[in-house]
Amino acid sequence: MEEAMRTIEEKGARVIRSTPLITMPEFEKDIRGTQGLHDVMTQPFQKAFEELPAKALREVIEFNDEHAYVELPKESPDQDLLVMAEEHAMTEETFERAERIMRMRTTTSLHECMEAKGLDVIMACGDGLLPPFSAAAGCPIGAVPLGFADFNGRAFGMHLVVEAEQEERLLNIMKLWEETFPDTRKPQMFVDDSRFRGQF
Predict the structure, then answer these.
(1) I need a labelling partner for 16 at 20 to 30 A (CA). Which of 38, 66, 111, 186 fits?
(2) In 112-124, which positions are buried (b, 16+ CB within 10 angstroms) versus exposed (e)?
(3) Per-residue DSSP letters for 67-122?
(4) Rounded to an integer, what distance in angstroms lies between the CA atom of residue 106 and that of residue 108?
């Protein structure tokens, strides 16, 4: 990642390596504030399946406990957020208020950070917290490749987030990234899309 940053600096980009957004405790607090209506929120998702081993949140928790060897690996051994959500009685009005607060805090944090440092985009490691932050803020997010891990072949890259309604800026930056790193090895295609080319 650092090598990529040095490369784009050499191409004329201004890179600031520390752009703190909302703190992790603040972000977690806001996320926890929107967990209580889990069963209502997942109903559209559930309709996509003919059968699910667990639907209600209590059933999900019990399923995870019964299959802990798969669902609760040592890297993530608990389900405290789910238990808290199941125990936390929340009305739809309370949920909507918590959601508004979360949206306001994240969008304000993003705007203040970008304005204070004169940024066009914020980038972070691909397995970081930028995707949930972007979702909470309702802002566009994209991903650009860096390469593949030597030890397991897993692809890795960076996420990019811009302020709301800045999709064109985001796409232009991603285009510049691809032009700057044209030799990045592409992942293997799992579906042959040749029969669809030229149809859209």
Answers:
(1) 186
(2) ebbeeeebebbbb
(3) THHHHS-TTS---HHHHHHHH----HHHHHHHHHHHHHHHHHHHHHHHHHHT-S-E
(4) 5
Most confident option among 13-17, 32-36, 47-51, 73-77: 13-17
Tokens 């940024």 appear where?
119
Tokens representing residue 66 in the block: 């019964």
E strand or H helix that includes residue 141: strand 141-148
- Judged by DSSP in three states, 180 sits in helix
| pLDDT tens per residue, range 27-60 | 666 555 555 555 555 666 677 777 777 777 788 8
pLDDT in tens, 139-179: 999 999 888 888 887 888 999 999 999 999 999 999 999 99
